[in-house]
């Protein structure tokens, strides 16, 4: 069984961290079910374990939190669906690479529900969109924008943190960081791509695609 939790109001980042820490501990002890938590945060930046201080270009703009997850700097804010995934890899196979690939496939399958083609790019974390509507890059390749971030942490082989999908955030807020340390590409969202999609639509798609990737959740 996987419990799905949905928060309708903005969740403070430290509150979310405390919840995940407690839930992961209970899952590892067999005292709680696995959990997927759908939420939004107020505007903030988080630093992963690979974050470089020079990539935080506006440190006074929003609160900055040390996330202790993998990855570099990431923005969270209203209009972005954050999905915290607390799954027990002791039961699902202790394969971190496979687990990250499953998260990537889950995001790509979810985007496909809206006829959006998400891709994984070698050497880059997250899910990317090739932009036919933008000028090509100097090397002649298509412009690419990031639409989803992935960053996880494991404790006793139970995962926490997870993914974030840009549905309708203020994309200008990303300008205070170098997202994931990548300067030559931008960020996008489902609404930026011209789709009249809301968070609730994405939630439905996430739930529909979860079982196909991770197995039945109930």
Strands, total number: 10
The rough form would be described as globular
Helical content band: 10-25%
Strand content: 25-35%
Structural class: alpha/beta
| Mean pLDDT score | 93
Largest sheet: 7 strands, mixed
Q: Radius of gyration, rounded?
A: 17 Å
Q: Report the total helices.
A: 4
Order of helices and strands: EHEEEEEHHEEEEH
Low-confidence stretches: none
Termini Cα gap: 5 Å
Question: Can you walk me through this structure?
Answer:
- β1, α1 and β2 (34-39) form a beta-alpha-beta unit.
- With 218 residues, this protein is α/β, with parallel strands linked by helices.
- It is globular, with a radius of gyration of 17 Å.
- The chain is 24% helix and 27% strand.
- α3 (96-112) crosses α4 (199-214).
